[in-house]
């Protein structure tokens, strides 16, 4: 009895929530360490930029509310020991955001290999991918075309792929990302 | 309208036709399926909680989860961090801590936990701290240390307690990091929350427990203040009694006063803890306990059964030591016999039995009779135990007490209960000889209707052993023989042994027993028939003396003979008569086996055979025998080791040899020793070993003559020489012709120290000062590759072959140490060695060795041996 009432109630709350907050979505943010994943989520939520961040050990889950969309973000650690667990958190999300440090050309190859290793997985089929070349405020940062090329995004077929250059520090292009993301909300 | 609860109860009554546990029928496979709900995009918090509960239930029930299953559960559980539901989060913490996957996986939750640790919700903070401390490695610990330190003094009690408990767990692994938080922990001890205070005190003790002074200080400081928490107070009492135990009598007076004051504490738990502390001290004296007994007496009439029980238990313990002191409370204790709690009543009765005078015994037994039918076996056992003690105390009451015991022997009861009665009776008649006959007759009545085979056998054995010395052994034969007619094979066999034993010791009953035994020859059971047969044979053939010796044979002797019989191929039966003789002289082998066998018997287990060789009988006493030195590697075909024996005018090398190859026999074994130096020893005499024994040891000897009182240093190259013969695998006989062969073994050295033995020196310093006239030489700053001083001392001891007369034991973690060795030469002169050791770095010890000897050459020889 109690359970039934509860599940009805939950359904009702979900309907109300949909009415007020509109849609919901779940994204996962991955990329090599120090690419700016946590900073990107901070920027997305409208927070201020911090210079020295502690490396994420494991993951953090946060819920943002932007443009009438409730976004659940899984912010995963980029250190090598955590890369094996990325796939577990990518299953079933609405979008995968892959953050690349556009100013660290020497890491492009590792970043590309990790990305394509992940895209090959059956569980990630058809999940839209957003690649971000972060730190565009730095002088050594490459252009967006170069990021597309370096990551060999042409190879990533069978899914929607988009690439932007952003700067979490100056909040450059963050609004565009948000728009792209919310367009994929359910 | 009915209230919802009443409604619920009614509904439950209807359903309760078969009331099921909520955990009934949980299956791992199904639960693992259900656990998929953790991955749902819209979490159902309630369902997730239930699934976690089921998983935890399975886990604590010992259900095995494979590594992949654990990984799978763990990662799906981590998804639940998205939920803000407090109860679910709580379960989440719990399951992470419980299933605890491998460290490289569990680290994934670190960041989330660190976030929770700084959350505003107390529940999150407290639990995140607990989990984090469980999973943290040293790197993470460094990162969170600051937060943990703060959490210890958090204003929320839950958080503070969680941090303290986690720190306690951490201190087991790494106490140093926790020590850095001392000031915070100290602050927490003064917390207003009882729980925090308790945990903080426990932790404070944990980090200081290896520092006695600091514990003394802590105890002294806290005994002056009033701790808010009764539990903390109990801890303090425990620490106090520890300090009292370790300290000198005169310094602990304030602590005794403290313990006494704790007995007036308003919390009963503190009162009991202090009583326990006082009563568990060593060398208690009655006057110290007067106040304790007064407090206990008050507690005996407490309305709480637990208090009554606790008080009664202490009194019971004290009753052993101070019966007079306790007798003041006898009136109160007697009231407790009728206590509805049977544990308390049993304790009361047993206490009274211990303390009550002779007069009270009968009255008490009467009360017990009415009480026994109501209690369980374990309580009955306690009472039997108390009756036994009473009986030994009041020996002249044994008739009453024995009849009491026998009454209960006849009544229904479990095995252990019955066994305890039987054992009590046995102890009684061992302690009180007058009680023996009565006891035995009770026991023989008991086996009439004993339902436990083991117990019957025990009693029958006892009857066989004890009844021959009673006035009328024949009386018991009837009881015993009845068992043969009525019982199972085990008891029948035991009865036959008992009868045989009686017949052996009572010549006059022999005829009657033989008649009875013959009737048993047609028993359906093998063992019974065999025993009857053997007993008859014994009684008919052998004298009582002989037969008696059969029963007293050591089993080892019998086993030896049987083993030998099994090994030999002889068809001759074993003659039991020879066992006695062959057990005393093991060498009398009954079979006529090969040479190998004989060798086996002769060779001694102790490694040197020199005492058994006639050649050395005329050489005088051995001045010194060295340690055994192995000359071959392990796992080689032959094991050879050497012992050097120094006689007055001979140097003997004993080579102890053992063969490991079954198919080959080595005969005429000798060792050729070639001197490599220039010591000028003459050609030695060689005593060969006929056959190198298989798996056992035999010796060959090389004997050099030398001048009395001289020391020789020499190195010898050694070769084992022998004639190898094949063994016929079927008959085991040696083939006649073999071939000569040799086998090279390691070199043997003769050192100056071989001529020295440990001298018995009363006062080393005195001998040292008397030896001024000797030659002294010192080698300093010798670096030894040992990491403790202790190892260095044993290093020198093994080089010299004896242990130091001063400085044998090294205090733990000592960095400076002096060891003195006193040696004696065959001339009676002394060689004195002083070794000063100092630990300079973590991995090396530096030694300075000073040697005093009568001659300069000897002094240098000794130094070179021990400093090489």
From TrEMBL, chain A:
Q: Which biological process terms from the Gene Ontology are attached to this UniProt entry?
A: protein transport
Swiss-Prot/TrEMBL keywords: GTP-binding, Magnesium, Metal-binding, Nucleotide-binding
Q: Which domain of life is it from?
A: Eukaryota
Q: Which Pfam families match?
A: Arf
What the entry lists under InterPro entries is as follows: Arl8a/8b (IPR044154), P-loop_NTPase (IPR027417), Small_GTP-bd (IPR005225), Small_GTPase_ARF/SAR (IPR006689)
The UniProt record gives the binding positions of Mg(2+) as 38, 56
Looking up CDD domains in the UniProt record yields: Arl10_like
Q: State the similarity comment.
A: Belongs to the small GTPase superfamily. Arf family.
NCBIfam families xrefs: small_GTP
The record, for PANTHER family, names: ADP-RIBOSYLATION FACTOR-LIKE PROTEIN 8
- What is the name attached to this protein's record? Uncharacterized protein
Lineage summary: Eukaryota, Viridiplantae, Chlorophyta, Mamiellophyceae, Mamiellales
UniProtKB/TrEMBL annotation, chain B:
Keyword terms: Cytoplasm, Cytoplasmic vesicle, ER-Golgi transport, Golgi apparatus, Membrane, Protein transport, Repeat, Transport
Domain (Coatomer gamma subunit appendage Ig-like subdomain): residue spans on this chain: 608-750
Q: Which GO terms describe its molecular function?
A: structural molecule activity
Domain of life, per lineage: Eukaryota
Give all residue intervals belonging to the Coatomer subunit gamma C-terminal domain.
753-866
UniProt xrefs under Pfam families = Adaptin_N (PF01602), Coatomer_g_Cpla (PF16381), COP-gamma_platf (PF08752)
Q: Which InterPro entries match?
A: ARM-like, ARM-type_fold, Clathrin/coatomer_adapt-like_N, Clathrin_app_Ig-like_sf, Coatomer/calthrin_app_sub_C, Coatomer_g_Cpla, Coatomer_gsu, Coatomer_gsu_app_Ig-like_dom
| Matches recorded under Gene3D superfamilies | Coatomer, gamma subunit, appendage domain (2.60.40.1480), Leucine-rich Repeat Variant (1.25.10.10), TATA-Binding Protein (3.30.310.10)
Subcellular location, principal: cytoplasm
Q: How does it sit in the membrane?
A: Peripheral membrane protein
In which compartments does the protein localize? Cytoplasm; Golgi apparatus membrane; Cytoplasmic vesicle, COPI-coated vesicle membrane
Q: Name one GO biological process term.
A: protein secretion
In the UniProt record, does the keyword Ubl conjugation occur? no
Give the Clathrin/coatomer adaptor adaptin-like N-terminal domain ranges: 28-542
One GO CC term on file = endoplasmic reticulum
What's this protein's function? The coatomer is a cytosolic protein complex that binds to dilysine motifs and reversibly associates with Golgi non-clathrin-coated vesicles, which further mediate biosynthetic protein transport from the ER, via the Golgi up to the trans Golgi network. Coatomer complex is required for budding from Golgi membranes, and is essential for the retrograde Golgi-to-ER transport of dilysine-tagged proteins.
- Family under the similarity heading: Belongs to the COPG family.
Q: Which PANTHER family match?
A: COATOMER SUBUNIT GAMMA, COATOMER SUBUNIT GAMMA-2
Q: How does it assemble?
A: Oligomeric complex that consists of at least the alpha, beta, beta', gamma, delta, epsilon and zeta subunits.
Instruction: Please give the name of this protein.
Output: Coatomer subunit gamma
Which organism was this protein described from?
A: Ostreococcus lucimarinus (strain CCE9901)
Which gene specifies this protein's sequence? CopG
